[in-house]
Amino acid sequence: MSKALEVIWKQPVTGYQLQAELERMAETTRNPEMLRELWAALGNDPQIIAECLARPLLVERLIHDWYTFDERYHGRLKNRAMKKVGLHGRIKNMKRMGGEYHEMEWKKGRNCEDKARNNTDGNVLELPGDEWQEEIEQLAVIFGEKKGQDIPLRHVSALQEDEERFYVIGVLQKETDRVKVALVEWKKVVFGEWWSRVGEHFTPEIEGEAFSYSLPEIATEAPLPYAADTWSATPTDIAPDARFWHTAVWTGTQIIVWGGWNGNSNFNTGGRYNPATNSWSSTSTTGTPSGRYHHTAVWTGAEMIVWGGSDGSSNLNTGGRYNPATNSWSSTSMAGAPAARDTHTAVWTSTEMIIWGGSDGSKKFNTGGRYNPATDSWTSTSTTDVPVARSTHTTIWTGTEMIVWGGSGGSGNDFNTGGRYNPVTNAWTSTSTIGAPDVRIGHTAVWTGEEMIVWGGLDVTASSIDTGGRYNPATDSWLPTSTTGAPSARFLHTVLWTGGEMVVWGGSTWGWDGSDGPGDGGRYNPTTDSWSSISMTEAPSIRSRHTAVWTGTEMIVWGGSGVSQYHNRLNTGGRYNPATDTWTSTNTIGAPSHRVYHTAVWTGTEMIVWGGTYVNNYFNTGGCYNAATDTWTSTNTTDAPSPRIEHTAVWTGTEMIVWGGSTDVYLNTGGRYSP
Fold this sequence. Notes:
This protein is α+β, with helices and mostly antiparallel strands. 14% of the residues lie in helices and 29% in strands. Among the domains are: 1-69, no CATH class; 85-187, no CATH class. Pfam families: Kelch_KLHDC2_KLHL20_DRC7. Keywords: Kelch repeat, Repeat.
């Protein structure tokens, strides 16, 4: 890319620019130790670090900026858009302009202090007062009016341009607190697609004259903008486009985001975010798999492997391996690959990825394959003694075998069968049905180190179940879990393995949103085959869709959906100590507001909850709960990402990083939160 900057835009990268990039990394790093390790891996050689680390980051930012508004690449699209606007420049003709046509309505929110956006009906967006005013003022500017002046009604604006598109806008209706607009947009060719076509023509060259670089001192701790209880936005200059249903893997040093859907199209693009250098790098589009969502992704320790999924019209049996060290893709071989599907399961064995089961929309599968990235080869999973085709089954990896059990074959055909797959021998061994639990879906499964314990779920009549079983693969035998003292029937419950017991709590007895819930819980000890009731003294109220984390000694549950009413959301919780069979209510003073679909991470000392929704309100608020002091500390909202649900959240060891998700729109923003 350096050569392209020099040849196309006459902007060769100078040593002074690279030195400034080194300074930026050292001053703004979110992980000083990681940055030191990166520099050490390069021998702490200023020249090597500047060329191998700083140059790629700087050049990618610069080339994106130059390409984005270069009329040599976007001028033809601009001219076509201008001609269409000239021919059909009246608001009643906007649908004939040839671009993508949209209508949307903006409403002023009742509470000007409420930062939550409310998508009440399709393309209707309710904005808090300050955001409403910003949108109206921006509309006035687009129409050439001064701030505070009236927006012309039923006029089409001049052609506008931003980083991603050309567009025109017209106001269809306007009232004191409501505006309905029409928009036509023409999307630019994204940088990754352009570079995949031209990049091969620019061969990197070794610099002839070396600049005398010096390594700046790396910050010993987070600088003031990144102090405790602060958000810092993940950069958006070359972040991936807004999306949903993407995958995200943590490599140990970076988050890799790939694929997904934005409501209209799917993606074959992605990005790598490195908190040490506080920068995004685009994943290469050369050799990338086709755009998709609902695919699976596994991290091998060196590569991310994606496979399968859907492109919106058909299922896929293609995939790819992405190597972040070389920013390169290698296609997964098609020879012997499993049939196209989604809703399959994928596990990583330490040497192979195993795909099994799933559906193509019309039929279920009992086939699969083992992919070995070292040889780029597929080996079909044996169909001898294989379980019956299914989906919504549970799958666990024992360390030597994959065990699948239960699930549905469709049309009410549910199972209490399963199988153990040994990838070394490529052989299935049917799990015994003698003493196996009854057929079910929506059950839970945990691995104890010796046994798989399944419990709860829904039977063939869609009634919840309070039974289960322990499966020992060494003896191929089932033992029923005792029903004496067992918790009441349920699904949507949470289970945690403490190391000695399985803890069951919460859930629903019917109704997928927790409209009716069980009022008890239990601890199951497989050694004694006995249940111990979970004390309900001081226990949180009945709920489902809550979050639960295990601290090592306690289970902390919080939030979720309560019983009786569909919109009965909760902001309460509790800590359960199985050693003493006691609950301690989580303090409600300073707790986040009621919500579901939030995320929760455990830092080692605190639980951080963030985001989520209540009815149609979305949040960018959260809280840090310290179990030792039973106190909440609100997460700072200064520079916090915008409200959202269905985002991804990971704990890096020092920070929580959130990215993507949706409200009424799909998002490509995120943030790093340092508690």
